[in-house]
Amino acid sequence: MKTVSVRSIKDLVARLCVEANIILRPDIEAALRTGYRQEANKRSREILGMLLENSRLARTRKLALCQDTGMAVVYVDVGQGVRLTGGSLEHAVHQGVREGYRKGYFRESVVRDPLSRKGKLSGAPAVVHTSLVPGDKVTVTVSPKGFGSENKSRVKMFLPTDTTDTIKKFIVKTVEEAGPSACPPFVIGVGIGGTFEMACYLAKKSLLRPVTKRNRKPGLKKLEQALMRDINNLHIGPMGLGGKTTCLGVNILDYPTHIAGLPVAVNIGCHATRSATGNL
Amino acid sequence: MNKGRWKIADTVLYTGTLYTARDQAHKRLVETIRAGKNPPIDLAEAVIYYAGPTPSPVKNMIGACGPTTSSRMDVFTPILLEHGLRAMVGKGARSEEVRKAIKKYGAVYFLTIAGAGAYLSTKIKSARVVAYKDLGAEAIYRLEVEDFPLIVGIDARGKSIY
Ligand code: SF4
Asked: What predicted TM-score, i.e. pTM, was given to this entire model?
């Protein structure tokens, strides 16, 4: 049995927090570049140019891509052949986030009491999703989520008899309502099926998939492409000032569901949709 | 700043002072005004920037500093306009009430490049906290900026770009 200390997980989490916040994902950078090449609207093209410049400056000067360094969502996949030593895994993750956000000079945006809003802000806690998987590796993904886009996300419980067309309309309308303040061009994460919380989890998790990759299921791949077209036809554009670059990718994940229901969640990702992954 | 001369969609490279204020700072500013006291900054002179920067290892500086969603400030904005504020910078659309108040007071609402925190930080020459230090990133910072890119979102006639 392989042994992994939670301390090494803490260090990995800290490093990934820094990486995710200062290095734009290559798939997003490539999609922005394509948008820049194809955008006909002059001002929108200029804005896309500034976003590419933003990415370059962040990487070379080790600055956060965006001042909203988000609330960290951390996925920990623990191989079943691994024995974790040295204390609580969850504490180690929170501590790693705390350290990473301090080291990177990131904004501490987490408020301890959601109702009173009182107390000192912190980078932690993170939202942690732990899974047990086959094998003897520990894989950690850190995805800082900004709230300009998070606030515009929606979930809806459809009827099992509702059509795909109705669902499409809901997704497109959610993006339309997200509008300029959620920092388009967007990455749209969609979760279909499961239960109420499962649909939301899938929508969030789908944002991790490179925008250049489509779902392997042919039906979902087609749906992703159709949604991408419809969303780009909204002409929201960068900063909501028009143009055809509204969406960098639509990522769908699905799961079996109950005969009586059809949950659908839409997680809006901004052009600073961030994540970084590492292994132990 | 001559607010009347701009039309929506005009681009401006602004050199001067910005004061950051986001949700909690707005709440306090409005509470102060309602209590009949003077706010800690001169609203009539201020350009308020809806932003909460990242810190910086460099003294009197900040890190990434892009705009936050302006509409969250909508409930507070008309009161600030009534008490002298004439210029704001943020991202996204405003409420109908804010648009009307901007028109009434001949103010202006600017957009800046949303999500380009690192890029915009290169336009900031100095930063220091002037009020509400306990709010951390939500404190009011006085920023000296040079060639800070702005786009007129709502002009003094109440016309909106969205
Ligand atoms: S929505 Fe994204 S890009 Fe926009 S401010 Fe928030 S984190 Fe930054």
From this structure: 0.93
